Amino acid sequence: MQNLLIVHGGGPSAVLNASLYGVIEEAKKQGIPKIYGAKGGSEGILKESFFELEKLTAEELAMMLQTPGSVIGTSRFELKPADYKTMPAIFKKYGIGYVLLNGGNGTMDTCGKICHVCEDSGIFVMGIPKTVDNDITITDHTPGFGSAASFLAETVREIGADVRSLPIHVCVVEAMGRNAGWLTAASALAREEPGDAPHLIYLPERPFKEEEFLADVRRLYEEKGGVVVVASEGLRGEDKKPIVPLIYSSGRAEYFGDVGAYLAELVIKKLGIKARSEKPGLLGRTSISTRSKTDVEEAILVGREAVKAAVKGESGQMVGLFRTETEDGSYRIHTGLISVEEVMLHEKKMPDSYINERGNDVTQEYLDWCEPLAGDGLQKMLKLKKREKE
Question: CA-CA distances (angstroms) from residue 91 to 94, 136, 230?
Fold first, then answer.
């Protein structure tokens, strides 16, 4: 039996280590002698810097399931064509016959390229999906999304309670998701009844219209006194340009000014209404305070399935999650393999049926899709009703 190497790529998540746990447990079950973890992502391959994960104790493995981020480290290291060509020799040197890459769109691109240079070498390469943005195509959803969605919804529910308690201003919450609004949309799960926050949701799939935004805010402010807006970090105007300027770019990574701060300032300057912005940012990406149980279970599952597939001789595939239709409509999933070539750098955006006509909210169809993934992490809140005099 050959050895196995697991590599993490891109942004961490609340359940990335759960997938790692699944990989380690299944690799042990399959009798794989050495389970290497690339230290600090793909650059760790080139440096031949590996953790020996089979040496972890039962206690350390259990702790892995309650640890956010990546215990082996991840990166956005930009590999060059020459780097890929050196990898097969490195794998052979360490007796590695199975290479697993766990990450998002960019990592699946790396996975495909490594698979290409390893053709006819007896090395099997598999992809494990992970991204809080949920923008990997074909698979129904990705591990990491459910927990990030749960955190955002809980955060917005708590901000909503603050604004409802002291309804004197507009609060704009900026959510992650540069080009796809799956995570921003999940803030709608915060609502327990009609009229609850968030009152407006703006996604990158729709052009941002400043006048409509200001009109919506003014109307809701006059009605409620306090308004909660959730906006994607990737909002673009009708000219398709970002509504805030680009600050810095490096490879695929682009950093723009704060959309939340920009919109709050817009409300203050144009409407004369007190406003402020909030930005969970990295906290929302990896926090386990409201982690979804479903997300953890599915993260472990895709890790296990990737090992099983590699051992069976599969290569150039990514493990996908697909919904199983049930008679009672309950949530069930099954796994399947997707050619990595079909997902390399292909972004999945929100379908039209998930966005309302005005482009400032989501539909019930989206909520029905999202709730099973994130709903188990949300807490109920007490609301007192005004009683009529007897």
Answer: 5, 27, 46
User: Which among 347, 290, 332 has a CA at the least distance from the CA of 131?
Assistant: 347
Task: Specify the 3-state DSSP secondary structure of 317.
Answer: strand
The CB density around residue 179, as the number of other CB atoms within 10 Å, is 16
Mean pLDDT of 326-335: 93
Residue 132: burial class (beta carbons within 10 Å; 0-12, 13-18, 19+): buried
Q: Where are the domains of the chain?
A: 3-143+290-342, 146-288+349-377
Q: Side chain identity at 197, as an amino acid letter?
A: A
> Which residue matches tokens 């447990």?
25
Tell me if the domain spanning 3-143+290-342 has CATH number 3.40.50.450. Answer: yes
H runs (alpha helix) in 32-181: 43-46, 58-64, 81-93, 105-117, 145-165
Q: How many CB atoms lie within 10 A of CB 50?
A: 22
Instruction: List, in order, residues 6 or more apart from 353 with CB less than 8 Å away.
Output: 363, 365, 366
Q: Which residues are catalytic?
A: 133
- Tens of pLDDT, residue by residue over 139-149, are 999 999 999 99
Residue 242 bridge partners (DSSP) = 236
3-state DSSP assignment of residue 4: strand
Could you give the angle at which helices 16-29 and 293-311 cross, rounded to 10 degrees?
A: 40
The helices-and-strands tally (H runs, E runs) of the chain is 12, 13
Interatomic CA distance for residues 387 and 389, integer angstroms: 6
Q: Which residues pair with 36 in a beta bridge?
A: 5, 52
Write down how long the chain is: 390
3-143+290-342 and 146-288+349-377 have identical folds: yes
In CATH, which superfamily holds the domain spanning 146-288+349-377? Phosphofructokinase domain (3.40.50.460)
Tens digit of each residue's pLDDT (9 = 90 or more) over 209-268: 999 999 999 999 999 999 999 999 999 999 999 999 888 777 666 778 899 999 999 999
* Cβ-proximal residues to 210 (8 Å cutoff; 6+ apart), any chain: 237, 266
